[in-house]
Each structure stands twice: as C-alpha cells, then as structure tokens.
Amino acid sequence: MYNSTNEIKTMKTVLHPAATRGHANHGWLDSHHTFSFANYYNPERMNFGVLRVLNDDVVAPNMGFSRHPHDNMEIISIPLSGDLEHKDSMGNTAVIKQGDVQVMSAGTGVFHSEKNKNSDKEVRFLQIWVFPKQKGVTPRYDQVALSSIMEPNQFNQVLSPNPNDQGVWVHQDAWFHMGDFAAGKSAKYHLKKPGNGVYAFVLEGEVTMNGQSLGKRDGYGMWEMESFDMTATTDAKVLLMEVPMNLG
Question: Following DSSP, what letter does each residue of 44-113 receive, concatenated?
C-alpha cells in the first residue's frame, strides 16, 4: 500500500484475543472489558484511538445499571440478545433489542439507567464509548432498527458522523459497520477518512483479516492503511469500528 508520495506505508496492527480481556462478574452483571474499565486496568489497553470502551455485558433477568451520570462521551449500545430498557434525564424511555443500535451523546451531562426488561432471560449487549471531537454539546438520544438496512455478506453502515446517513450518528469522525457472512464469503473495507484506524470485533464465528485468523470475541486493530480484506472461514458476524487515531 502506498501514500501520495509513493513511499511504502506499512499497516500497523494490534491483536486482543478474547481470553485476554478484563473480566468482572458481579452476579447480576458479567462483563468482559477489551479496554481498561472500572477495576480492570492495563496501561497497554487504555483505548484504540478515540475508541475508549468496548464492554461485552451480560445482565441477569430484572437487573441492571441504576441511574448514573455521563458527560462528554458518545455512548453506543448494541444488543446481541434480549431486551434492554433505557431511561434518561432527557425524558427518553425506550427498549432496545437485537437488531437495534442506540446512541446517547452525553455532552454537557446526562443521567440514565439501563435494565434487563425481562424476568426470564438474560440480556447481552455491547457497551461502546467514543470520545467526541467537541465537548459541551447538547445531550441527545437516538436509536434505529437495523433489520431494514442489513444485507447479508457485506459490511452495512450502522453509525456515522452524518445525521442524514444510514444508521445513527455521533459527534466524531467515526463509522461503524456490521455484517453477517456465510462461510467462504469475502468483503473489502475501504476507510472513510485518512488517518483513521479500524477496530474489528468478531461477534460470532471465525474470519481471516489480511492473513490474521480471528475467532469469537477476538479484537483486531488496524491503522495506517486505506483498506483491508476479510474472509469468513465459518458463518460469522463482525463489527467494524472506524475511528480517528489522534485523541487531540
């Protein structure tokens, strides 16, 4: 891969196998942390660019996170199974489920709670925090159903910086894509903005990205490249998070 001056540009990568994540089991909450969070601290895993938190959470029936504050953070929730009830100080009450994506721009400050809506089954969801590109924005909430926009065997955009684009939007030059792939299917991803990187998270199955084999819940960060290829070695579900690498 080459840049505009025809000098060789070598892609940089970081691999986070699923088993190396931080783990906390509170009984009502079983959480795996890709990056340092709460009592899990690893100075080599503070963030990937502006991607600050990637928590893989399982919440017991009728349990949840009580009302708590956030500010100056873009918070994205992606349910994997079950139903998650959200309430916030902006007056929003909503239930998100598998096939939805939710975003809350905390901005100047907001309180919210999240609870497993069901009494008979767990809820599993990803909690993702992204640093915003500007502080002090007006808090906002949004969610979309993905079922109408998800095409098989390709990366489907579910988040962007543009309110008029497909999916939800955030106050950051970030793009998220999700895809369900049948075994043997391949796809190429082209970065949307120069200088960004991509953190790939395998939700189900096994894939290969530029020769790197990845399994369920493995994370793989790539930067200083313009595109990359992926092939599903089994039926697989993958989340791509393209984010700026510069925190400033």
Answer: T-S-BTTEEEEEEEEE-TT-EEEEEEE-S-EEEEEEEESEEEEEETTS-EEEEETTEEEEEE-TT-EEEE
pLDDT tens figures, 11-61: 999 999 999 999 999 999 999 999 999 999 999 999 999 999 999 999 999
Neighbouring-strand partners of residue 113: 87
SS3 of residue 18 by DSSP: helix
Range of the structural domain that residue 219 is part of: 12-244
- The verdict on residue 240 lying in a domain is yes
Exposed, middle or buried, 184 (CB in 10 Å: 0-12/13-18/19+)? exposed
Q: How does pLDDT run across 73-91, given as a tens digit for each residue?
A: 999 999 999 999 999 999 9
Distances in Å between the Cα of 94 and the Cα atoms of 100, 116, 123, 129 are: 11, 12, 15, 19
Closest among 229, 176, 169, 173 to 199, alpha carbons compared? 176
Q: Flag whether 2 is in a domain.
A: no
Q: Please state the domain count of the chain.
A: 1
- What single-letter DSSP state applies at residue 131? -
Cβ neighbour number for residue 203 with a 10 Å cutoff: 17
CATH code for position 233:
2.60.120.10
